[in-house]
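DM between two lab members

TW: hey, do you still have the DUF2079 domain-containing protein entry open?
JB: yeah, one sec
JB: this one, 585 aa:
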Amino acid sequence: MSESARDGGPVATMETERETPEPGKPAKRGLLDRLPYWALWALTAVPIVLSIAEVVRAPKINHADYWVVLGLVADKNGNLDVAQLFHLYHEHPIVLVGLVFWLDAKLFAGTQPPLGFLSVILAAGMFAALWSMLPRTLTGLRRAGVVAGLSGLVFSAGTVEYFGDGMMGVQWLLGLAPAVIAIAFAHHGKLIPAFLFAFMGSLGHGVAFPVWIVLALVLWLRGESRVKTALPLGLGLVVFVLWRIAPWPPSYQKPNVVGADTYLGAMTSTIGQSWSTKSPDLAFLAGALTVGLFGVLAATAVKQRLAAKTENFTGTLDGPAPVAAVAGWFGLAAQVVLNGAMIGVSRGGYNATEGMSSRYVGIGLLGVCAVLVLLVTRGPRALRLKAIPLALVVALCVYAIGNTAAGATRYRYAYQPVLGVAMQVNAGGVMSKMYAYPDFLEQERSMGIYPFTPDFTLGCGAGGPELGTTVDLAKAVELKGPGYGTKDTAGAVDTAPVTGDKQINGWALIGGQQAQCILITDGAGKVVGGGTVGLPRDDISQFMNGTGRSGWQAVAAPEVKDPVVLAYRDGTCHRITTIKDAGKG
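TW: and the structure you got?
JB:
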């Protein structure tokens, strides 16, 4: 099969492409003619810019698995333990993930933003790979519209966890992004880079493992030789054997009584979660319909490939694209289905809705990408001719639905700084509750990673109190509970009793404003704890005047004696005297 046929069709298609320049090449067009292209390019850029902004606004301190993976791959002195890189973590390879986390600790003090920016780069690589697989028959504004839609899907609101929690993004995208890039190279017939990226993905995360089967499918749809088609299957078998002989950690016991429907539910909810983040039934339905649609389109493609007929798929502007021209998109669909099946088998024993976890969002979104492109290239003629509105509407709907997952991630932002204080004061109970593994605390302290860096602060501002300093409790102004004084100045501790190594919750309004920082001192005024402010408290704003973000959370050293809670603002400490157990937090 000729290269031109594989990449998009006969000479007539190439002539059409010359007549309709690519977006960004507006030769011989007036200003009004260029405006639609500029608008679509702007729509393409917006989701990417918003993802970068998410990295910037996210907390500095890292989350959850970062601490345990770093603890596993570094020795007690903080040096890289190369052998530990080849152990599995939750049944997944951590060769690349462990190395990246260790480099983040060494080069960037273990902070989150570099991991978030790396996640954006990985997602951008995935987006570029998808863009490169669009067939040549998709030209002009139609192509620009689909590109804008793909941007809105790859950088959807549902992916905020990948960028705002860079640890999560790195874990998943180091497997998923290389797999997608490998599919793109195979789509263009470039075997060596395809195999290299597939191998890279296999070292990053188990989500990449199906790519070896997918590469064989893509090469077969392209009409490559049997040897080339079989080669990735052989390499995949080698990867599978290496995975099985790697050191396996103990696995969690699956608690539920399950049936075939449970595993199917976990699979379909993974694939369909982009269409529903709240309703399991809708996620099951969307996932099942997606798999069914893939099956119908694939059956037509396989039939055509076996019959070696092309008369119904001429590659003209308004005709369905040839199978070879969209081989990578069928491969992407297969990758999504196989990933869903993997999660169904591995997680179905926990719950049929396990696939709705936000960490799997990339799989579901890639499924939507594959559906979109296959419909506008090989779907009904009405959809092919309406590629722009279809792409933009699909992307907008999925982006809007992703708001629920994005909101849940952002909600955690404000609480994460409490972990830094807990680590500083050796509050092991709070650390465990926030998945920071106190067993690795001394290792992290010796590595000098955040929060064990000079720039760590309780957030009180220049010259304000910090851990270890002393405040004059006699000068503290009493901040009474609601009903005593003005409607814009009051506060309370909602968690009783106030003790060390415990998440302590409350709220404070000072002249209608939130506190600058929250402090916990011992009876002598020594600062032995602190936390975070600006937490949402709608319940307080209903009867007090001022900001709706008056909430705070704090933690103190385990050995604190006679703890005192202070809200600090504008150089004055306000002692919170109302303590009640209202179950807030």
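TW: got it. The longest strand covers residues 527-535. Residues 457-576 form one domain.
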